[in-house]
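We both want to read discrete structure tokens more fluently, so let's practise on a single case. Would you write everything just below, so we can both look at the same thing?
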Amino acid sequence: MNTFIYSFQSEWIKKKGSAAAWLTLIGGCFVPAIILFIRMYEWEGLSVANQNPHIWEMLYNRNWEFMGIFLLPLGVILVTSLVTQLEFRNNTWKQLYTTPQSLTTIFLAKLAVILILLAEFFLIFNIGIVLTGVLPALFFKGVPLPAEPFPLTSYMKGNAKFFLDCLPIVALQYLVSLRYRNFLVPLGIGLGLYVASMIAVHWKYGYLFPYTYCAYNFMPRAGELKNKDSIHLLALGYTIALLGVSYILYISKKEKG
């Protein structure tokens, strides 16, 4: 256990100041910042809007509709590829393998860093959503704070679904990024699958493409799947299967330098 903690700390230090760290911060703030700007620009109508009994639900849907369908999958593709490929870009894989830690520990530590960054992104993004509702009331007289109590439980449930739905993307990008030295290969594969998924999202069998799962949260049904909750189970299944394949390919890879 101590070996894993030290390995995780090492991986966490390596990502500091990297493009992945900045992408997590900027990506989490991007959509809320735009919506906050729009709300403050049109502040005269906020006195009525903030009295809406479903104001927090409206802000949640408005932010997540843009983030979940477009930016979240792209951000996951980029961050996963960047973190996984740190050793390839710095030519330090051989140095890493000389340290007294197993391949399993290295595999899990890198994966843990990616998942923590993803959780960090979700936290920043939700703080941004809260600020879109609160800040206009602090800057403009006559604009009240949102009348609806903040629905923490429903927000947590919704975020948990999005988190689960983007895990297959993490798993597949992790698999590809560990296999190829060139950063453009996993990036190209990820973007290609994302574009294909956006085309297939309205296809009745679109649920076979795991990159569509975040988008299905805003659709009445997922193709032939009448129950959208089935998507979350599929996401979990894809994640476990892809991580299993990724682990087997990683530890059995002959050239690890």
Remarks:
- Residues 2-252 form one domain.
